[in-house]
Design a protein that fits this description.
The protein is an alpha/beta fold. The protein has three domains: 67 residues, no CATH class; 61 residues, no CATH class; 174 residues, von Willebrand factor, type A domain (Rossmann fold, 3-Layer(aba) Sandwich). The strands form three sheets. The chain has a six-stranded mixed beta sheet with strand order 8-7-6-9-10-11, sandwiched between helices.
């Protein structure tokens, strides 16, 4: 019975993962976000899975294809042409299912065919894992190994001649008890930092920020799947740049002009102060609608990229979020300078929410 339940549960999990993968593009394009639970799992909405069931009837209509009626006539129970009013009938049902963050990242990786990342930085984070791989003589009752304890009691009773096969009563004493014993193993994981840069000038509206918020969630999901843990830093800018927390990053909106070089300088300073490129895997992601104050500032941006950011980073990613108020010129400037074949510069145009998944594949598809 237990094996059957486990097998059915495994089949259900496989169905759920298949449904999530099938609906992943639609789910991301709607801008919906999984709900973290704090225990390593997330809740994700998906269409409900109907359980097959029998429906009883009087069976007076004969078999398939039998009875009165012409081709094209509606079947009993189906809506007639022109029947019904707006809002009539049941809508689509959705249920929330729980999946682990690792499962969700695996689904994303499989759907986009993302390669595993080959870390560049040498710095490692030490983590300790306890595995119960041996048996000890002492321990708490919660770790008592009943099978081994009774086996020891049986051996003792046979040795002293008190075991009676006709009445096989085994009574363990304290010295018979055995306990699961943990062995600690130390693992070393590569360290990574993600630095998000976003233009918050007046031309970047709520729709553009929602696209950035959605895309950054899935980027973080994949990078956390590749690294034991990552640090995340946030930079916002209009004509000036400043580092902020996550909530401020997605809610701030300014009305000034745009100097992208101010954000590049701050990003450069953060890397120099806290992240040695020889030790850390560094991922700057910039999101903008492509406006910049002047060609002179764009030239300064390219100099900082060439001399500081690109040499330090695993890759530098620029995502241009389409806006009716943005010129999009900065994407053209980067494309003219680096093209599509640059090893460490990845450019992506994000026209709307439907383009988020393709943008993620462009950013993460090189496995850097």
């Amino acid at each position: 019975m237990g094996h059957s339940i486990k097998r059915d549960h495994a089949r259900f999990r496989k169905i759920v993962k298949g449904r999530i993968r099938t609906n992943l593009r639609q789910y991301i394009s709607r801008g919906e976000m999984p709900t973290p639970k704090g225990d390593g799992t997330v809740k994700i909405p998906m269409p409900s899975i109907e359980t097959p069931r029998f429906r009883f009837g009087d069976n007076q209509g004969g078999g398939t294809g039998q009875g009165e009626g012409n081709q094209g006539d509606p079947v009993d129970g189906e809506p007639q042409p022109g029947e019904g009013e707006a809002g009539e009938g049941e809508g689509k049902k959705e249920v929330e299912v729980e999946v682990s963050i690792e499962e969700l990242a695996s689904i994303l990786g499989e759907e986009l065919a993302l390669p595993n990342i080959e870390p560049k930085g040498k710095k490692t984070i030490q983590s300790q894992t306890d595995r119960y791989t041996s048996i000890g003589l002492v321990g708490p009752d919660s770790l008592k190994h009943f099978k081994r304890s009774y086996k020891e009691a049986l051996k003792r009773q046979i040795a002293v001649g008190t075991y009676n096969p006709e009445n096989p009563v085994i009574v363990p004493v304290r010295g018979d008890f055995r306990f699961r014993s943990a062995k600690s193993t130390v693992q070393y994981e590569n360290a990574a930092v993600v630095i998000y840069i976003m233009d918050v000038s007046g031309s970047m509206g709520d729709e553009q920020k929602e696209i950035v918020r959605t895309e950054s969630f899935w980027i973080n999901l994949w990078l956390k799947h590749q690294y034991k843990d990552i640090e995340i830093r946030y930079i916002i800018h209009d004509a000036t740049a400043k580092e902020v927390d996550e909530e401020t990053f997605f809610k701030t909106r300014e009305s000034g002009g745009t100097l992208i070089s101010s954000a590049y300088k701050l990003c450069r300073d953060i890397i120099k102060a806290d992240y040695n490129p020889k030790e850390w895997n560094i991922y700057p992601f910039q999101f903008s609608d492509g406006d910049n104050w002047s060609t002179d500032d764009t030239k300064e941006c390219l100099d900082i990229l060439d001399n500081d950011l690109i040499p330090a980073a695993n890759m530098f990613c620029y995502g241009q979020v389409e806006s009716r108020y943005g010129s999009g010129q900065f994407y053209n400037d980067l494309m003219k300078k680096y093209g599509t074949e640059a090893d460490k510069v990845i450019l992506s145009k994000i026209e709307n929410k439907s383009a988020i998944l393709n943008s993620i594949k462009e950013f993460l598809g090189k496995g850097k």
